[in-house]
Specification:
mainly alpha, 6% strand
């Protein structure tokens, strides 16, 4: 049983560091976690991500959501741009961003296993799965005080009820209740 369905910002950093120390594809694996977290991607969206939607020079990525979600354009920042440029150099010739040694797209199962291995290496004490990164995105944005509608658009939710869960648990909602 997991203690919760999301990771904190610091735990995501720990997971990225752990992934960068395990296996033959350390940079690719740590980049997968970074991109999944920064954009709240589902594992199926992550493995289908192609270079034709990533604009490194302009610093943006066109995110197509699955499961009838709303598409959007997300900014990509320095750490992601550097990671993606290196991936493009390390794995040339594939239309997919995250690929196997044979230049084919990674499978959702491979990503799940990789993230679980990184979670074990990070010594969380509970099993980590990719969807925890999507939830971590929602909670981080809510805790940072972002508007619920903006978070809804960012995560591609058609129904705001799927987004409200992130703002319901934020401790920041109660910060001004007591003035000691």
């Amino acid at each position: 049983m997991r203690p919760r369905e999301y990771l904190t910002d610091k735990e995501v950093d720990r997971l990225i560091r752990a992934a960068s120390k395990v296996g033959r594809h350390r940079h690719r694996d740590s980049s997968i976690i970074l991109v999944a977290y920064r954009h709240g991607l589902r594992v199926s969206e992550l493995v289908s991500l192609q270079w034709n939607v990533v604009e490194l020079e302009q610093g943006r990525m066109h995110v197509s959501r699955l499961r009838d979600g709303l598409p959007s354009v997300h900014p990509i920042r320095g750490p992601e741009i550097r990671a993606l440029r290196r991936l493009k150099r390390d794995y040339p010739g594939s239309p997919y961003v995250f690929v196997t040694e044979r230049k084919g797209p990674l499978t959702a199962s491979a990503v799940r296993k990789m993230i679980a291995r990184a979670g074990e290496k990070a010594n969380f004490g509970f099993r980590v799965h990719p969807h925890m990164l999507r939830h971590a995105t929602g909670y981080k944005l809510a805790n940072d005080g972002h508007d619920t509608r903006a978070i809804q658009q960012y995560l591609g939710h058609k129904n705001i009820q799927h987004t409200v869960r992130y703002t319901q648990l934020t401790a920041a909602r109660f910060k001004d209740f007591w003035k000691d």
